[in-house]
Amino acid sequence: MRVLGVNALFHDPSATLVIDGAVVAAAEEERFSRRKHGKRPVPFAAWELPELSMRWCLRYAGLEPKDLDAVAYSFDPGLARPAQEMGLDDPWDHLRLTYAERAPQFLAAALPGLDPEKVVFVPHHVAHAASGALASPHESSSVLVLDGRGEHASHLAGRYTRGSLETLAGQHLPHSLGLLYESLTEHLGFLRSSDEYKVMALASYGRPRFLEELRETIHATDDGGFVAPVPDWSRWVEPRVDDGTWGGLHADLACSVQARLEEVLVDLANWLHAQTGDTALTMAGGTALNCVANSRIWRETPFEDVWVQPAAGDAGTSLGAALQVAADRADEPRPIAGADLGRSWTDDELAGWLRRAKVPFTTPEDLPDQVAAVLADNDVVAWFDGRSEFGPRALGHRSLLAHPGLVENLERLNDVKGREQFRPVAPMVLADRAAEIFTDGPIPSPYMLFVHTVRPEWRDRIPAAVHVDGTARIQTVDPARQPRLGATIEHFAGRTGLPVVINTSLNTAGRPMVDDPRDALELFGSAPVDLLVLGPHLIRRAHLFGTSASAAERSAAQDDTRVAAR
What we know:
Helix content: 25-40%
CATH superfamily of the largest domain: Carbamoyltransferase, C-terminal domain
Distance between the termini: 45 Å
Structural class: alpha/beta
Number of helices: 20
Low-confidence stretches: 41-45, 548-566
Largest sheet: 7 strands, mixed
């Protein structure tokens, strides 16, 4: 069974190809189009068919559109209701619905040879649920979905057993914890449906002075749902202008709403556990990208294992829709092995890119040790290796890396990216060393979707990795899964005593994550990065621009004689 999953509504358009129950390829359209989150000017804010990512998925597997058995579209217009009837102020929603209704014709036009009769509508929250439960390592699990909105709801609670979903609760619109958080994001001067993670970071700088008032109106109900009207934020603080300043009452409001969100999610998870008694909880929906809330669910509910897939937002609905249709048609869904489901290039192809660009490079046998030396010498490394990540987190395939032992490297990386200074960066840690440094969170944690407390004895050793509240959003690295990265961190630990490097996504503010070699070279040419790792190849700023090389670079250049002109 060959199923192409498609997300083309709301935001983060994406495509996923599932063959015989296995996820073969998955990618977000923004990595090809270079439009972050698929955003376009209003009113057509995100109604984008992921033509480029769909075609790439098919090319990757050597398929033609006519070879597909089904195309799973992660929205069912037959379940939708008019926005006004749902209490939503969205004057363009009727056009969105028309767009979805005509999806089979749009898909057939974008993929010549596709029979439009093969298009299957999958309810939005079912697609989210399947993206969590069916991609997870658990044969059965409870599943919790929360986001901004679907056809007529914002929440699903249920249980998956052998590919079959039993829905136990849901929440009709307009009540939506996702829309509540989106509204706050906009009030705080950020871009809604895009910058919610900034609110989560800002919350750590405030205190929950408005929490008691929020508890009066926002709460879980005894049927597994919740009440969440969007308040008038201006009653507490005027809208923030995004002028580079932050803190004060705006941080307090972020802190208060974040705290209330966490409390309600814990209540919802506890209710669900009381219905199922499961040991495992899988989560999806944009709210599941809130790693602080995920960690409270892990700590404060009876679930022993909480699993969140790396593309938990709307991009992941292409994954879930494809897996659900495959399961419905008797294929057994297989767990994903990792987030590296996107594009990649062979070593020779990468070398070809560099030669065509006339960029001098080396291909050292001891690349991990050379990169570790550069990091230990406090230089910034752009890391491009293997298949790109599916989802918003850089997980060691498209990353910026630096030394965690100097506190100024947090500000330095934020300056490289051109982003706000209240934003934390994330530590990558060797999986077998994580427990000695981090606590109060699940280990392993390969997808950077939980926060952990940094043990006090390590906070002064890795200050750039520690957020203002003493936590860190970690990624555990298994050298068996990521050998080049794992070896680099091992060599770095040998040089510094620190089995940790700090990581942020390989992009600059407002742009999608780097995906192909051209993107990587453009960033390297325009940002103050000292070394670019492109697969097995190294490009040094000192060699490219004639700038003064660091001691580590000079030593490596003397030792390595293999250059681009091979």
